[in-house]
Amino acid sequence: MLLESDNFLLELTKLFQQQRVKNSGSLSLVMKRYDGQTKPKPKLTKKQRLENKQTPTNAPTTAHDSVEYKCLVRATFGSKKLSTIVSSKDINRFQLAYSNLLKANMDTLKKKAKESKATGQASANANSNVPSSPRMATNAASTSSATNQQKKTPTTPAKKK
Amino acid sequence: MFVQSWDEFAKQAERLYLNDPINCRLCLKYRNEMLILRLTDNHTCLQYKTIYAQDVKKAEKFMSSLLRHMASKEGPEVTKKKN
């Protein structure tokens, strides 16, 4: 389904929500440069290849020079597919919205790389929305270093809502 | 091919992309508590796997610079420095 970039972002948010509700399945995003060509280039026949060898043409390079590239973004979740084409005119707006969307929705990942086992479990609990009291989570965090706790406490109540 | 460190991935991915921009694609796979980035040009495939939120920021930065470059007018031969 080819959408306008605004609609694409809207639908993508819905996909992220669906994934969260289901709590399973993977969402994949693909982006690539787009030059207006929708079909793959047909493979050269043997005859054409021989001709090309004899007279190397500069056709592909000249074609590339005049093309204004766009960006094709696809998203797939289960059987739902979305795609959009972003031109260089809209790239700033789209890029900002897109990265904000990703940052907002990829929040089930762990918070810190280098942590002890105990804090890792605590953050895992917070992520999986186990109905434990916020006090317990903060206590677990306080067993680790104080700096970790300061970073963690603002995030945990937000998750509990 | 899985790359272990992010810096290595970003460096190699950039090189691979600039080598052949039109055939390169960047795939993100977001699964429960895991994020996989894959950049491929149908010959070489670079992959980076993470479970940490701090990598999302880096990945997102990398993606936006890539996005910008993809939608710009520059041809394959231009080596634009991305940060």
Q: How do you describe this structure in short?
A:
The complex is a heterodimer of chains A (about 160) and B (about 80). Chain A has 7 helices and 4 strands, in the order βαβααββαααα.
What's the level 1 CATH class of chain B? Alpha Beta
Helix fraction bin of chain B: 25-40%
CATH architecture heading of chain B: 2-Layer Sandwich
Strand order of the largest sheet of chain B: 1-2-3
What string gives the helices and strands of chain A in order? EHEHHEEHHHH
Let me know the CATH homologous superfamily of the largest domain in chain A: Signal recognition particle alu RNA binding heterodimer, srp9/1
How would a crystallographer describe the biggest sheet of chain B? 3 strands, antiparallel
Tally of distinct domains of chain B: 1
| CATH architect. name of the largest domain in chain A | 2-Layer Sandwich
The structural class of chain A is alpha+beta
Provide the low-confidence segments of chain A as ranges.
113-134, 136-153, 155-161
Rough outline of chain A:
elongated
CATH superfamily of chain B: Signal recognition particle alu RNA binding heterodimer, srp9/1
How many individual helices of chain A? Answer: 7
Mean pLDDT of chain B: 81
Question: Percentage of helical residues of chain A?
Answer: 40-55%
**Rounded to an integer, what's the Rg of chain A over CA atoms?**
24 Å
Assembly type of the chains comes to heterodimer
Number of helical regions of chain B: 2
The CATH class of the largest domain in chain A, by name, is: Alpha Beta
Q: Which key terms come to mind for this protein?
A:
heterodimer; A: 161 residues; alpha+beta; Signal recognition particle alu RNA binding heterodimer, srp9/1; 2 domains; four-stranded mixed β-sheet; 53% helix; disordered C terminus; B: 83 residues; three-stranded antiparallel β-sheet; 3 strands; 39% helix; globular
